[in-house]
Amino acid sequence: MKIIETERLYLRELTMEDKEEWAKVLSDIESMRFYPHPFSEKEVENWINWNIDNYKKYKHGLWAVILKDGDIFLGDCGITMQNIDGEVVPEMGFHIIKDYCKKGYATEAAIACKKYAFEVLNYEKLYSYTILENIPSQKVAQKVGMKLYKYFEKNNLKQIAQVVNRDN
User: Among 3, 7, 83, 162, whose CB has the most other CB atoms within 10 angstroms?
Assistant: First the structure.
């Protein structure tokens, strides 16, 4: 079932059938360079199950990003509840298979998720965070209108959080 649709993409819930394609992001050394390590098969399964639980608990999570032309799995984008420096907030995240990066897919999906967060979920603010070195993710957040919120530490790593308000 399509949750969100854009000109080139649609977003739907992740399922365990996505595991092999999803591993192209989560198990890839280059794609996971801003994470502690690439994910094992079990960790990929846990990631999918975590999102399935989020769909039930919050009515949102990270959704599969599918390219309409060819019905190709590109990665994920969506909204999860995250702890940013002691405050649990709606946070937008995205991960795109490296072969499809730098084509505007993450930005297109993120803009649609921002609209969904405000118009459907009625959040007043939407956040994004990443380790300080993850400049590509920070640039996507900026393209959807996010501004610096704060710097903080999580898991002994320096993080940057960005935010956009409903009114922006």
Answer: 162
Per the listing, tokens 């969904």 go with 116
First to last CA, the chain: 30
Q: Which residue has the tokens 């702890």?
A: 83
Both tokens assigned to 99? 């072969």
Residue 27's contacts (CB-CB under 8 Å, 6 or more residues apart) are 38, 39, 40, 41, 44
| Domain ranges across the chain | 2-124
Does pTM surpass 0.90?
A: yes
Classify domain 2-124 at the CATH class level.
Answer: alpha beta
Backbone angles phi, psi at 10, to 5 degrees: -140, 150
Give tens-digit pLDDT for 14-62.
999 999 988 888 787 777 777 777 788 999 999 999 999 999 999 999 9
